[in-house]
């Protein structure tokens, strides 16, 4: 089961858990109301997993690749880590499936507060187009993830403020309907 919680306000190392005190856990239903979808899969059989194939077919996730984020594997590692942690949005859904290692996706709730989602091996998440978010490794400094897309991959991130994009407007309309 996914672990998620409201974050503290500390600007300390983003690889730390940053749990608010007192602890304020966030459940799957609250994430769903933000448009965040989650699945738990068997990452050891990702190459031939009928459950993954079913999700990909149902949601039209037709393109994929695998990225390993660690100092030894990712070119320009330090710069990329900083870019991933900048608050941004995409014009398309962001779909990630953790095959090994772990990290955090942070998303904004309706009141603009940060929710941290701990992702580890077997976790798959979809962040909707238009949601402000960011990513950080945890203190293990390693994650291997499958990136999935509907259609051809689009890597463009738009740092906040990016409220003028149609995808952001659609996302805000979605939030207004999930009162």
From TrEMBL:
Descriptive protein name: Acireductone dioxygenase
Record note on quaternary structure: Monomer. Interacts with MMP14.
GO BP of this protein: L-methionine salvage from methylthioadenosine
Pfam families for the chain: ARD
Cofactor field: Fe(2+); Ni(2+)
Organism from which the protein derives: Enhydra lutris kenyoni (northern sea otter)
InterPro entries per record: ARD (IPR004313), ARD_euk (IPR027496), RmlC-like_jellyroll (IPR014710), RmlC_Cupin_sf (IPR011051)
Enzyme superclass (EC): oxidoreductase
Pathway: Amino-acid biosynthesis; L-methionine biosynthesis via salvage pathway; L-methionine from S-methyl-5-thio-alpha-D-ribose 1-phosphate: step 5/6
Xref: HAMAP family: Salvage_MtnD_euk (MF_03154)
Disordered: region residues: 1-22
Functional note: Catalyzes 2 different reactions between oxygen and the acireductone 1,2-dihydroxy-3-keto-5-methylthiopentene (DHK-MTPene) depending upon the metal bound in the active site. Fe-containing acireductone dioxygenase (Fe-ARD) produces formate and 2-keto-4-methylthiobutyrate (KMTB), the alpha-ketoacid precursor of methionine in the methionine recycle pathway. Ni-containing acireductone dioxygenase (Ni-ARD) produces methylthiopropionate, carbon monoxide and formate, and does not lie on the methionine recycle pathway. Also down-regulates cell migration mediated by MMP14.
Reaction(s) the record says it catalyses: 1,2-dihydroxy-5-(methylsulfanyl)pent-1-en-3-one + O2 = 3-(methylsulfanyl)propanoate + CO + formate + 2 H(+); 1,2-dihydroxy-5-(methylsulfanyl)pent-1-en-3-one + O2 = 4-methylsulfanyl-2-oxobutanoate + formate + 2 H(+)
Localization of this protein: Cell membrane; Cytoplasm; Nucleus
Top-level taxonomic group: Eukaryota
Phylogenetic lineage: Eukaryota, Metazoa, Chordata, Craniata, Vertebrata
């Amino acid at each position: 089961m996914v672990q998620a919680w409201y974050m503290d306000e500390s600007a300390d190392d983003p690889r730390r858990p940053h749990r608010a005190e007192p602890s304020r856990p966030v459940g799957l239903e609250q994430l769903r109301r933000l448009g965040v979808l989650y699945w738990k899969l068997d990452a050891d059989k990702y190459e031939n997993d009928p459950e993954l194939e079913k999700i990909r077919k149902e949601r039209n996730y037709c393109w994929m690749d695998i990225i390993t984020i660690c100092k030894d594997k990712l070119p320009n590692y330090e710069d990329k880590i900083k870019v991933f942690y900048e608050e941004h949005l995409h014009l398309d859904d962001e779909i990630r499936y953790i095959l090994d290692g772990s990290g955090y996706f942070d998303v904004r709730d309706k009141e603009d507060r940060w929710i941290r989602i701990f992702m580890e091996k077997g976790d798959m998440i979809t962040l909707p187009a238009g949601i402000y978010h960011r990513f950080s490794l945890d203190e293990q400094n390693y994650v291997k993830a499958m990136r999935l897309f509907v259609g051809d991959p689009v890597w463009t991130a738009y740092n906040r403020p990016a409220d003028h994009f149609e995808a952001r407007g659609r996302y805000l309309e979605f939030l207004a309907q999930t009162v």
